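User: I'll paste a sequence; please echo it back and then give the predicted structure.

Assistant: Echoing your sequence first, then the prediction.
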Amino acid sequence: MKRKIQQLLAKFLSRSKGIKRVDLGLAIFVTFVALAIYIYTQISGRNAAGLRFIENVEARSLDARFNLRGARSHDENIVIVGLEETTLQKVGAFPIPRNAYAKMVDQLRRDGARLLVFDVNFPLPEKNSAVDALKKLERSIEGQANAAVVQKIREIEATSDNDKILAKSLKDAGNVILGHLFLDAERAKSVDAAGAQEYFATLSAHPFPQVISIGAVSPAQVWKQITAEANEYSDLNASGIYANLDILAASARSFGFFNETPDSDGTFRRTPLLVSYKYGNYDEQFYPSLDLEAVRQYQNIQWENIVAYIAENGIDHIELGSHNLRTSRDGTVLVNYAGPYRTYKHYPMVDVVDGRFAPGTFKNKLVVFGATAVAVGDTRTTPFHDADYMGVEIHANVIDNILHSAEPGRGFITRGYKEEAIDLLFILTFGLGLGYWFSRTKPLTATLGLFPALCIFAAIVYLAFSHYGMWLSFILPAGTLVANYASITSFRMIFEEREKRKVRKTFERYVSPGVIALMEKNPKKYFKTGGESQELTVMFSDIRSFTTISEGLTPDELVRLLNEYLGEMTDILFKRWGTLDKYIGDAIMGFWGSPFPQNDHALRACACALDMRTRLQQLNMKWDAEGRKQLAIGVGINTGEVNVGNMGSSKRFSWTVMGDNVNLASRLEGITKEYHVQCVVSEATYRAAKEQYVFREIDRIKVKGKTVPVTIYELLDWTRNESFYTERIVRFSEALTAYRRQEWHEAIDLFSKIKAKFSDDGPAETFIQRSQELMDVPPEPDWDGVYAMKTK
């Protein structure tokens, strides 16, 4: 039989190894899928068909990092002059008169602004009825009025033409960059071709200085291929231009485009730095963004120090003086927003126009002008805001990123080869490394390990972002970790538990349920027969006068009564985490401290005895109402060294205890009949539990067959009820002292008084009878008060 059990156990262990192999296979599968998804999305970019939601969720995780970080340090030399609501109220509705722009430019020039960047363009002449009337008058009197009148009309016209006024202010300032907008083929159809041609004649003299190919590639062809791949890039595949008036362009220092490209979820996280454009018969050239050109002019970077390198798969990087800018292959960069809207200093345009600012406010500043009034409609969704972040501040952020590109955490957010390598390392670690660990650890341990791993990973991802400006993927590596955990743990819970149930079903006929549970965790340890010495607490309980009770019951009534009683008492034993050793007829044998280690085994045993007493009182009330027999029990508890483990034959064995201390617990249960009490404990149990329970010393005895006396105690109650027993304990102690001094009359008197007041006091009744016997037949002269038990 033992060999059969060993074979069954070996079979179970071999199945466990098979399960671990399947677990590892799941980890490899999850890792392979995660790697495939990651590589596909990186190759396809934002055009990853069917998997765009993964990129969108990942992008949202980047937004969360921005919001968690909050505002960071920013360049205070970058300021914004905004066309906001108060300006519209005081200067006029949008579009506002261009002489107001001229006044603003003049004020900034006088205050020492180093550079002024316009995040607006002026594609059409300003509608001016006065100028139109003067021109009409001039045409009507042409050849009729003298030259002086015509000259006077022209002078008045010049002072009334706001386009000419603004052009003069731009030329006087000499530090203004105008913005323009590249258009896709559809929108280019609505643009005035003549105006665009005039503007492009000026713009063509301001291309991106140098574009160098890495290898035998055509930059124009590479650009065309990149921008044709996805709809998001349609603005970058420029077919037209929304220009500036030629008169204003001729007066500006330089130009840059202010196109912006939102992600597929509508959030502006990226911005382009270059666009390739071919107009008419002109050669196709690359042109800089407004922000790139602003930094070039602000730092006076020479053309020979400005280079864009283009490889076969797209733009590799841009060198702008000392700034080395790593871009995506389409020339876009990830904006490292300095904070929420209005992180940069804002000034209302009307205040600048009217000169309401302290002298020197704009000295050496890079001023970005743009619309900040909601009514103008230049609002954007960014990581910090939903559709209420003004576009002009995006340009301030991009300029700041370029100026501080060499500082960790201040330049653009990077997501290149280095970040991809780290992402792959995390996917492999979470897929294979932790997958292997999940396959060899308990589900609970795996669960406890999952959350710290996720937290540590999230912290690494966040710190890489906040301190170094790195965008490490969070969703796919974390998804790999969670998928590994979920698949492996689910598999083990479904299939491994099924295997455990098979083991239980196979072994329950041979061993007790408690042993089976332990065998599942550590079969080798608990399968071996034999025991080990360990301090435990053992309890025996027995029904009083059960033979007499059973004689008055039919067999069915007896079985019903016994099953109900044993079921209730066993539930209490299990509730107190005891181990049920066996039933001995109507008796219950249990112990604490093994196989589950318990330092408080004595406390648990005492609690079980008191719970049994309470429950038996409730059962007796129920049985009495039903006209059935009532029961009384005796409980003996002892704490000490015992031999515990698998005991029995090769055909049947169980987890049990043996030794003298087990025998003593059994004797103490029998002693309860001698003293008419419900629960007797040994001195060892008393010492271990006296702080939490109420005891009283009953006697010092020698159990039959032993020579060493034992002090025994009655377990009365929990310490919270100690006040109910104080008088009885004190009185009994005084009577017991008189008894041990052989003062029989006094002892009988004291015990009688206890009995008179506490009629249910069994030990008092026992000592009255014993004192009378010893008074009639005095003990030996060397008697030490120890009573030798005559029965077991």
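Residues 2-44 form the longest helix (43 residues). Residues 725-787 form one domain.
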